[in-house]
C-alpha cells in the first residue's frame, strides 16, 4: 500500500495526466500514475486513434512510460487510475495483463471526481494470470 503522501501524489499525477488525454472519439479522459518499488512515479493518459482498436489506455501508457524512462527492473507497487466521472473506472483486461507483468503484487486504486473509489490487488483483477514465470 502507498503511504497517504504517496497516494496524494499519485492521485494528483493521474489527474494531471487525464487532462492530457487524447480521446477525440470516446471523449472519455483517463489518467494513470504508477508507483515503482523504488518510490518513483510515472504517469500516462489514454491515446486514441482513428483506427479505434489501436487506442492505448492510460494505465499502459504510464507503465510503458516507466520502462521507456529506463526502469530496468520495473516493479509496480501501486497503480492509480483517475477519471473525471461520478464513478471510478476499473482497468480493462489488456491493462490488467500488463499490470500483472510488472506488478503481480501491486495495489490498483481507481479514483474519480466523485467520492467513490475501488481498491484491488492484481490477483483480484486477474486471477490465474499468465505471466513471466510461465515462460521460465
Ligand atoms: N480507457 C483507459 O484509458 N483506461 C481504462 O481503464 C478504461 C478505458 C480508455 C480507452 C479509451 O480511450 C477510452 O477509455 C474509452 O474506452
Query: What would the principal axes of the Cα set say about the shape?
Result: globular
Q: Any idea what the CATH superfamily is called?
A: Cytidine Deaminase, domain 2
Strand percentage? 15-25%
List unreliable stretches of 5+ residues.
none
Topology diagram in text:
Layout: H1 4-18, E1 31-36, E2 41-45, H2 58-68, E3 76-83, H3 93-102, E4 107-112, E5 117-121, H4 122-125
Parallel strand pairs: 3-4
Antiparallel strand pairs: 1-2, 1-3, 4-5
The structure holds tetrahydrodeoxyuridine.
Description:
This protein has 136 residues and is α+β, with helices and mostly antiparallel strands. It has a single domain, classed as Cytidine Deaminase, domain 2, CATH 3.40.140.10. Helices cover 29% and strands 22% of the residues. The protein contains 4 helices and 5 strands; from the N terminus they run H-E-E-H-E-H-E-E-H. It has helices spanning 4-18, 58-68, 93-102, 122-125; strands at residues 31-36, 41-45, 76-83, 107-112, 117-121. It starts with a helix and ends in an 11-residue tail after the last helix. The structure holds tetrahydrodeoxyuridine. Tetrahydrodeoxyuridine binds next to helix 2. Residues 23, 26, 28, 30, 46, 48, 55, 57-59, 81, 89, 91-92, 95 line the site of tetrahydrodeoxyuridine.
Summarize the structure.
This protein is an alpha+beta fold. It has helices at residues 4-18, 58-68, 93-102, 122-125, and strands at 31-36, 41-45, 76-83, 107-112, 117-121.
Amino acid at each position: 500500500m502507498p503511504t497517504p503522501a504517496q497516494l496524494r501524489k499519485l492521485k494528483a499525477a493521474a489527474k494531471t495526466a487525464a487532462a492530457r488525454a487524447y480521446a477525440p472519439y470516446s471523449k472519455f479522459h483517463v489518467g494513470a500514475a504508477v508507483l515503482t518499488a523504488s518510490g518513483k512515479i510515472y504517469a500516462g493518459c489514454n491515446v486514441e486513434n482513428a483506427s479505434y482498436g489501436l487506442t492505448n489506455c492510460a494505465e499502459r501508457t504510464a507503465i510503458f512510460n516507466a520502462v521507456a524512462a529506463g526502469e530496468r527492473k520495473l516493479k509496480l507497487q501501486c497503480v492509480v487510475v483517475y477519471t473525471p466521472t461520478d464513478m471510478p473506472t476499473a482497468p480493462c483486461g489488456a491493462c490488467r495483463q500488463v499490470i500483472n507483468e510488472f506488478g503481480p503484487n501491486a495495489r490498483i486504486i481507481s479514483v474519480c471526481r466523485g467520492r467513490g473509489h475501488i481498491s484491488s490487488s492484481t490477483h483480484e483483477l486477474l486471477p490465474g494470470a499468465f505471466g513471466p514465470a510461465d515462460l521460465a
